[in-house]
Structure prediction request, 227 residues.
Amino acid sequence: GDSVTQMEGPVTLSEEAFLTINCTYTATGYPSLFWYVQYPGEGLQLLLKATKADDKGSNKGFEATYRKETTSFHLEKGSVQVSDSAVYFCALRFGTASKLTFGTGTRLQVTL
Amino acid sequence: GAGVSQSPRYKVAKRGQDVALRCDPISGHVSLFWYQQALGQGPEFLTYFQNEAQLDKSGLPSDRFFAERPEGSVSTLKIQRTQQEDSAVYLCASSQGLAEQETQYFGPGTRLLVL
Prediction:
């Protein structure tokens, strides 16, 4: 079945460091890809998405590019802030109004 | 405007009790999803409604789990004869329509602990 694999956390970085969180997927076909973020004490929020190969999603300084050849959607940010500390989930979805399939999440801790 | 709300936020149940978890989606949203998130894991799909019709219940783990959305707005997830393995956060999400680009908006979840 369809699945998403994320790098295990926690990831601990100093403020202003470069961030990469790896995400790869297994699916029959070409799903839409998403990154969701869960801040402490809050619900899941959509961070960015891409719906077809080579699309780049971006938001709040985060970026991810849909790579069909490597079945990947790695999340990057050039300079993290303490406020970026959260759990990040990669997810995929096929078609309209259908379920999301999530990875296990990667906890990011940013320190001063 | 108001987001997706869920109640109760926390629920402690004794093994064997029945529980009911409520989801109020964003007003006018056609699609509604339930997910289960075990500790340290990503959310896993349980069931999907389009208006009042339950179109996909493939993720419900057993026949003890039942969901309804009788008027196409509020939804209730019911778990009968709760077991310890049912302990998890139950998330509700809604989206406006059916288009490919629709974003799912998540509620804060109900944390269920079965003792």
